[in-house]
Amino acid sequence: MAERVLASDVEAAAERVSALFARIYETLDTWRDAILSGPDAAETGVSAAALDDRVAALVLPPLQEDDPLLIGAGFIAAPDFAGGDDLHFAWWLGPLDDNPVFGATSSPSKLDLGSRSYSDYLRDFRSLEWYSVPQSTHRTHITGPYVDHLCACDYIVTVTSPVERRDSMIGVVGVDVYVKRLERELLPAMLAAGVPLALVNEQGRVTVSTDPAVSVGTVIAVPRDAEACAGTPFRLVRTTAHG
User: Which class is domain 43-179?
Assistant: First the structure.
């Protein structure tokens, strides 16, 4: 009986993960549809100002919520859609926690790549996971956890979804979420399982853990019986043996 109750609690934790990311997917679907339904959606060379205004209207409200889930959000346009040689970042940052590079901010701000002298790697954006995987799979993708050195200077996960027009991707809509914010959302259900658990991605990299010996960012073995979190690449791994 105890084992069955335990399994049920682990399943409940997995369902909590699925439900959280389902909310994010739904948000991205709404934003994608809004971009594609714009008056200039069928054109190329959309003005950066018009694109920024449209995206800002979509992403600023959730970034301005009390205790927002998201730390970044926006649309990254392919060059042929944005009318330039490089991709265009219509991307906003939520209020940032204090960090050694940028300090802290109290309100959303637009990402200014010009102020990030080390952002040249973004010119080869087609090779970056958050862009290349949605482009090749035509599906929403979760990147991370990883340390975001561009903005947050902390562990985040990035969720991106392709925006496609006539079988061609014109960009991705996406969000960033602090891992420490995911911990607040997911730890109660994981702790309720009664055994140490780690939430891992497809590579076994730990995203959230209730085991003090297993830290975020480490890679652990994923057994075949790990609990899948439906609709996501995540699995819950029991990190210690149990009776």
Answer: alpha beta
